[in-house]
Amino acid sequence: METNTVALLLLVGIMAGIISGFVGIGGGVIMVPALVLLLGYSQHQAQGTSLAVLMFPVVFLAVRNYYRAGAIDPKVVAVIALAFVIGSYFGSRWSLALPADVVRKAFGGITLLVALKLIFGK
Q1: Exposure of 78 by Cβ count < 10 A (0-12 exposed, 13-18 middle, 19+ buried)?
Q2: Which of 42, 43, 46, 63 is 20 to 30 A from 9, alpha carbon to alpha carbon?
Q3: What is the pLDDT of residue 102?
Q4: Which of 44, 6, 8, 7 is closest to 28 using CA atoms?
């Protein structure tokens, strides 16, 4: 792997971690576009890489801080985590069955709608 590529990957990882820990967004909101735009990954490669990164306890310290502050309800986490596992299985299957450009547009559209709701919603 080239030095420039390693540097870009480190930058993407650091920024995704900082923003994820700061506002609680999934690292994929940062990693996926960065991998596509900066490193030329396909949408499927970027999504798979983002999910693989999240397999490991990358958010452990952030979760610990929020838990210690009383900002996490373990019962809610358990229910959502179970549903998330099921949903992510089917979502990944559906994504891989579609062309990457369709998935990229869906990703962008969902991200845009969420951003607009957060900016202009009540």
Answers
A1: exposed
A2: 63
A3: 92
A4: 44
